[in-house]
Structure formats: structure tokens, C-alpha cells
Amino acid sequence: MRVIAAAAAVLIMVGVADARTWRVRPGPEAEQELQTALIEARPGDTVQLGRGRIELTSGLSLDVDRVTIRGEGHDETILSFSNQRRGAEGLLVTSNGVTLRDFAVENARGDGIKARDCQGITFRRVRAEWTNGPDSNNGAYGLYPVNCSDVLIVDSIARGASDAGIYVGQSRNIIVRNNLAEFNVAGIEIENSYNADVFGNTARFNTGGVLVFDLPDLPQMGGHSVRVFENTISGNNTANFAPAGNIVASVPAGTGVLIMANRDVHVFDNEIGENGTANVIVTSYRAEFQDARYNPLPRNIMIRDNRFGNAGFSPTGDIAALAQAGVPMPDVLWDGATLYSVGGTPRNEQVRIVVQDNRSTRTGTASFLSLGLTVAGSPYTEAAPDPTFPPLMALAEPERVEIDD
Amino acid sequence: MRALLFVAMFVLTTSAVAQSPQAVNTAAILAERPPQILAEYRFFRDAGARAPNARVTPYDLNTALYSDGALKFRYVYIPPGQTARYDAEGVFEFPVGTVLIKTFAFAADMRTPGENVRFLETRLLIRRTDGWIALPYVWNEAQTEARLSPIGADIPVSFTDENGAAVAFDWAVPNRNQCKGCHDRAGDLVPIGPSARNLNRSAYYAYAEPLPALHGMTAQGVWRNQLAEWIDRGLLDQAPADAPRVASAYDTVDTVEQRARAYLDVNCAHCHNPEGPAHTSGLDLRWSQHEPVQWGVLKRPVAAGRGSAGYEFAIEPGHPERSILLYRMESTDPGVMMPELGRQRVDARGVALIRAWIAEMDEGAN
């Protein structure tokens, strides 16, 4: 019987203001020590991870407020889940005000780091990676806050996720800044969320670089107010390796930015290029749904002042057939839908899509194409492509997101 | 089937005639620091925890959570002079000092589940003034003592299963956070099992004297409805004659749909409800949910990852072979399987039931 020993092996040091530091160093006892520290910690404590590789067989979890887990650097302190036998993620956080910094989570069987129902969660210089590169057997999400508020993800890295590297779902008040997301299906995804600033990031070599989605049948819907700016979003041509059935499995390889069924999304001042299908795609949610609360159309979308590199040189997915039929692939592609139906009842919507002042290294002025599908979910065979830019109009930019940093 | 019958019978062997020299240790129940040894609570009259003390009442459920096929022995202790308050929907409101006691065990040969029963752990859920706490006590090899193990344990087990096959795996005693992984309702730890609908069943209460050293069957006793028995024993304040009843998943008296919904309610809805850990999935597997898309029919996955298996819907009517829900029940891969914790084997009977239910659904239904 291998009853896990109590906390004896963990050093406890009294620190300032009664906060304690729990030190965990790599070694045969590290797994037990670490989970013990995460359970026994009191609010305000720090769990300090030593330099090296800590091997875990079971998912870790933290349910104590205001705890900091910190390592010596995301290349120096590695939580390795290559031999994980239990638990659906590497690390699960379910408490408020938690900071994760300077360590890596590698090869979790499910998600890398999940934070659920948290008020205040910070990922700083954290890395979540599947080290064998793109593989449909990799876990779904790398850094994964869901139903959280005040989410800060900065200077972090996500690689190899079979869904999204950095995935913020059903959350509010979000900053995703200066991160690197590469070799994931989706580099950075903001889904069913409100008020997000995504800036200064590099999203490259994914299937799709930056995704802003809203999906039906979820507790929080009606995603809105997302700013995507000053990012580098390039070379996102990795073949889609998501397990089929997942919504991102339908993302065509070669997508820079994809905005689906969301409102008040502003994409500006980005470098977006070398994406083989399109630099920016704006689309409705195309699958059937029953949820009467759901709006599948993108509305109030601003695409401005971006610098576009090459795009459309090897389109994939349903759009590829249009390209083969001679339709030129643009920098910005919109499906054209302004109508949708719920239970057979048609609804229409003022869909404002504004594309202005973007520059292209290929053509000088960026190109645009509407597929003219009119009704959300219409088959691409009914496309009536139209390169006419939609009318210019003023769209209010979402307010800057403020989080204590 | 024999295992189930056994559980139904033995659980109800009771201590109604017990004249314990020492009552349950109520101070231990409410102590700031819980006892390190299970016996200190005196829930049982013997060190091996086979003979319950006075007011420690065994109970059984219409449909129970699958836990790797382990036998489970359940008891409730409610302090003298107090009663649980009836609730038609959820778990009863239990008074401070209540303890729900559950022992997990395997028989050496599960085809003869009354013989050579080895206890693995006894989990306590204790109702304190500031809420419930969960405490796992792990049994020693000699079966003489169970010791508190708050951060969990792995216990190697091996036995012969119901089909005669040799099984060996590490039984996982959950740590405190993992307990909450299932017993979580909007951030608070709560019990799952003892609801009116799941307790509302007949049970066999034996009145043998002396009580057998080991849980065993006896001819001396009565079949009684558990709710009525709890009221008579002063454990429950009241219950209406038409209290709800959830189907028994493996008792073919009820329809396949009723049994399948009961199975999902007990095995999945503690997470998959609007206030549970899986609420962000939008999948609500409660017995009381009446919108098919909410319990999975033609519902697309959100964050299933590899768990989707390439299928489009949680439940595709008429097509169990393309239904994500069944696929995840059939997996033991930590990144795929459901539930995420508390199971390392596949519940073959549960899988067969859910498969039959999805197969019989009208393909055009929603």
C-alpha cells in the first residue's frame, strides 16, 4: 500500500505578513509534496517550484484563493505529465486571485492548465506544450481559463494544442498580451467572452492564428467587445490536426484571423501575412442550432490599419473549391450572411462590416471579397462572390480592458 | 447481477437492536482536527467496521455511482434528537453533526461478493457548522484499522470480476480537491446520493440477534420503504406519500429511457448541472432536465478535445456508435474518459444501458 505521506517533506518558511512559502524540488517525493502544498496552502501563500523536471502521474489541482505557484523559468521548471494516468488536465485552478508564473506544463493527457470559475487568474511567463509537435493525440487546450473574470495571460507560450493554445472561454475582462502561440490548431481563441484585449502577441505556424468565436447552447453566449491589435499573425498554415467534431476542426489551414458570430470586434494595427487561405475571415456560425438565444452572425466588425503580407496562395477547406473555380482569394474574406433562421423563422440583422485603411505588401491596397451567401450556413456552392468593399462607417471601438497587472 | 442483489440485501442488515456500550463519539465528529483513526468515531462496534453502532443506519440507493465496480457500504449517522429535512428535489438538508459513511471494497471473487471482502477506504462526509468536509480513511492490509489520508493514496487491488476474469489496478483514493471535483455545487462541497428520489425504495431491515460478525443475509427482518424507516427512526422529518423515485438503472421494471436518465443523473449530473464543475459545457444531465438538446441530443461538443472521437454530437439519436457521450463512457484514457475522476475501469452494464437507450431513439427526434 502506497499511502501518500503527509506534508512532512515540504519545507515551510515563515515569510512576510504570515504568508508562507512552500518549496518543492524535483525528486521522487515531488508529486506528493506539490499536491500536498496545493491543498494545505493558505490564502497568500507561495508554492515555489525548484529548477528541473517534476514528473506527475495525476492531475494537480488548486482550490485556495490568492496562491502563487512559481518556478525558476518556463525552460527551467517543468511539470511533466508524460506519464499521467489520472485527471483530465495537468493543473486545475478553481480559486480566486491565483498567479501562475515561470514554469511549464508539458504533455498533459487532457488540457494543460485549466482555470475554472476564477475571479482573477494570471498566467505570466508560463508555457504549456506538447513536445511532439502537432498531433491529434495532444490535449485540447494549453492555457485554458473558462468562466473566469479578470484574466491576464502575458509573456506566455502555448505549443501543440489539438484545439487552442491559449483559449479563453465564457469569461469577462481579459488581457492576452505578448504571448507566443505556435503549432496549435488555433493559436489564440476568445470564445463566448466579453471584453478582451488581445495585443502584442505572436500567433504563427498554427492552423488558424487568432479566433474570436461565439457558439450556441452554452451558459454564456453573445460574445462581444474584443480588440485584436498590434499582433504578428503569420504563417498559420499547419494542417488542421483537431479531432473531428470539435468546432476548430472546421477552421481551414491558412487562416490568420477568424471572427465568427461575435459583435464589436476590432482588428487593427496587426501584421498579418503568409496565411495560405486568407489573412482575415469574417463568418457566421454555419451549423444548425436550436438555441433561440443565439445569434450566429458577426456584427459591428472593424478591420482597419492592418499590414497584410501574402495570403490566399494555397487555400484549404470549402473555400478551396471556389479558388479552383477562379475566385481570387483576398486578404479579408466575409461570407456575406445577413440573415439566419431559428426553428424556420427567418431573422435579419444589421451586419456592419467595415474594412478600411489596410495595406498590402502585395497589392498596396488590401483586397476584400464577400461570398454573398446572404443566409448563414448556405452551402458555398451558392456563393456569389463580390469584391466590392462594404460601406465605410463609424463603429465604436470597445473600451480598453483594465486589470491590475 | 448477483453482486447487485447482494448489495441490496446486505446493506439493510441493521443495528436496530444494538446495545452499544459506547455511543458514537460526537466530539470526534465536530473536532477541529479530525481523528487519525476511523475507529475513534465509534461508528462501528468492531474495529473492522462491519457492525454499525446504534443510530448508524445503513442505506441503499435506487441507482448508485459506478466506482470501478467496487462494493459500497453506506451508512448515515444523524445526532440524537435531530432529523434531516425532507427536500423533494435535491439532497436532504442534514443537521450539523451528520455523517455520511461509505466504505469501498472488493471481494476476492466478485462472483461471490459476500466472501473475502477487502475494505479499501471509508469516506466520511461530515456536516459541520460551516459546511461539509470530506475525509478519506484508508484501510490497512490486515483490515484492522483505517487511517486518515487527506491527500489521497494509491492502493493496488486484484480480484476476480463478475465474468471470472482476473483484474488488477491501483485504486485511487481521492485527495481533498478531487473530492470536491465531484461534490461541488457552486463552490461548496455537498453530498450527492441521499436525495428523496434515490432513497425512495424498499429495503430489507434485518433484526437478527446477535448481529453477524460480517455483513450477511438473515431471514429475520422486514422489507420497508427507506423513507418511512428513516422517519420512524427519527432520521427524517417527513416525506409525502408520492415522493419522487428515480429508476434503478439495472432493474428492468422501468423503461430503458427512465433507467438511462437515472444512470446519467447519478453518474454524471453531479458535474453536469448548471452549478456543477462541468457547467461550462452546457450539458445538463440532471433527471429534471426536459430539453433534449440540454442533455445531449444533437448537442455539439465545446471543449471535448480528443473526447469528441470525431463525432458531431453528444448523442446522435439511433446511433450510439457515433455518440460522444457513449464514447467517453467507454474510454479509460484520462484525456478522454468521463467521468474525469473516480473511474479507471469501464462500466460495462452502464455502457450497455446507454447504448440501448441511444439506439432506440428515433433518428428524427430532437
TrEMBL record, chain A:
Q: Which Pfam families does this entry report, sorted A to Z?
A: Beta_helix
SUPFAM superfamilies from the xrefs? Answer: Pectin lyase-like
Task: List residues of the Right handed beta helix domain.
Answer: 88-212
Q: Which Gene3D superfamilies match?
A: Single-stranded right-handed beta-helix, Pectin lyase-like (2.160.20.10)
- Which NCBIfam families does the annotation name? beta_helix_1, para_beta_helix
Q: Which protein is depicted?
A: Parallel beta-helix repeat-containing protein
UniProtKB/TrEMBL annotation, chain B:
Superkingdom of the source? Answer: Bacteria
Ordered alphabetically, the record's keywords are: Signal
Which range is the signal sequence, renumbered to this chain? 1-18
- Keyword Transferase found: no
Please give the InterPro entries that the UniProt record associates with this protein.
Multihaem_cyt_sf (IPR036280), SO_2930-like_C (IPR022269)
Does the keyword Signal belong to this entry? yes
SUPFAM superfamilies this protein is in?
Multiheme cytochromes
> What's the protein here called?
Cytochrome c domain-containing protein
Q: What is the protein's species of origin? A: Terricaulis silvestris
